[in-house]
Amino acid sequence: MQKNELISRYEQAATILPSRLRKVALSLSDGEKAQAEELRLRAGRPLAVLLPTGELPLEAEVEPEELETLCDIATEFSRYAAAETIREGFLPVRGGFRIGLCGTAVMKDGMNTNLKNLSSAVIRIARERKGVAEHIAPRLFQGGGFINTLILSSPGGGKTTLLRDLIRCLSEGGADRPPQRISLIDERGEVAVVYRGAPQMDVGPRTDVLDACPKALGIPMVLRAMNPQIIAVDEITLREDLTAMSMAAGCGVGLLATIHAAGVPELLRKPLYRQLLENQVFRLAVRILQKENGRAYELEELPC
After folding, report:
1. Which of 55, 106, 187, 191 is the most buried (most CB within 10 A)?
2. Which of 279, 256, 255 is nearest to 267 (CA)?
3. What local confidence, expressed as pLDDT, does residue 189 receive?
4. DSSP of 256-281, one letter per residue?
5. Mean of the per-residue pLDDT values for the chain?
6. Residue 152 forms beta bridges with which residues?
7. Which residue in 138, 187, 143, 137 sits closest to 163, CA to CA?
């Protein structure tokens, strides 16, 4: 993404802010706008911009009422339509942005039903990096079939960005590979960023998105209903996720997933992920490496 595009994405994110805070956020230099990753709002604290070097506080203290206004703007003054995701602590926004929320949980029968008295919000400035997976996608096939693949990196290493572009590449197909029907279980709404049924990010023409659904529930749902060739998920964290993925692999469906781990040795040190390797659910891993000139991608076979 070119610098002008990065600046434009930041300025689009700033339009979600209440007018007073928007003016302050737009006062940043173009260099800071291009590097910004998040806008962070905390009641009674300065509005802050997250840069690669850390948080930069701005000269505007966030009023509690402005957090409510932020939600109204983000939902286009139809907050009731977003009640399901608000109670999960986030809001998808038109244009591919996502707002995380904190406040007071409203509990009923042991379940959170809403958030009130909002105290914090974070606007994630998601940026598509189309093309980063082009050279990887062809290498995930063997004998014409997709090889189950994990994407590995430390937190914040770019797993979701690579996953999104791999899904797009696999869905579109190419001269060296057939297009694939993909079911994306987007539990946290960060990959496709679905807004009122429409993905705000390009995940390809043959991708079906099951949004805001736990992976363990969503995987059998799409297996029954969508006839996928590949199921893609972001961040395997629970044993139930592994059980559902093992079941899908037993049905002959390809799997693409991400895990927080710097590499295979770290996977082997964690009992949950060690079981994943022992069951041979996945055969390939794409490691994301942080180099001086940017990210690099290394493909390796997983131990049997």
Report:
1. 191
2. 279
3. 85
4. EEEEE-SSHHHHHHSHHHHHHHHTT-
5. 91
6. 259, 287
7. 137
